[in-house]
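Morning!

This is the sequence you dropped in the shared folder:
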Amino acid sequence: MNENPSVNQAGREASVVTPEHVMLRFQTAGLGSRAAAQLIDSVILLLVNLTVFIVIGIVLFGKEDIFFLDSDGYAIAVVILLLFVLNFGYFLLLEALWSGQTVGKKWMGIRVIRDNGQPATFLSSTIRNLFRIVDTLPSGYFLGALVSFFHPRDKRIGDLVAGTIVVVEGGGRTALFQNRKAKKQGAALAEPLALSEQQKQAFTREDWQLLSTFIARQSSLAEAKKLELAGEIARLLQKKLEYSEEQARQEEPILFLQRLHRTLQSEWSLGK
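The structure's back. Tokens below.
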């Protein structure tokens, strides 16, 4: 998807214009919500690290025939390697496999996405988390927090290099305080649409990218903006599918897009 990013510095708002001239707006996550998410993740990792230390201590002191006990250097190297993989892998794997969120980010209602509005990839998550080491210099994420504070999109160094951005879901309210209206609305699965082969063939890759981006990012949009975008995108895709005016009027835009996405997901996801 081609994009034309712009930023409203006063409102910390980032926008992406799709090739179909539909603008997606996101509110970037500030230092407060990101710091809170980091604190939650740090507490989780602290507990995990303590558990690992205790288990390793029991194993090492309980058995004298472990091969690397003969050298303190080997034991220390193994422990350091294990802790690095554990702490680095926590952020990398969760962000890559959990749609740009860790436990802390999910709790605070923020998410990592790419600059073009698409979900974060394994590569982008790897890059941004490798640069986490730089962001923590000299200590306590000082450098990353400093860069994020002055950047109009609240980006730390890892985000700048990886081409990612951290956004707030639900139009600016963190999940810690917002109600669960969106979850209740999405509780009932949307029934798939009955599309002819001709209608499916008229649907292009650009159409799928527009649809899938909206579906993936709808929780990041304010309610009014979500309804507005859904109406624009629904009209565009209904025209592509040669819907009559009567058919279009009978469809609620957001539900139509959800049903269309569910209908085409299996065949289009194979081509990603």
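Headline: Residues 85 and 137 are 20 Å apart (CA to CA).

More detail when I'm at my desk.
O.
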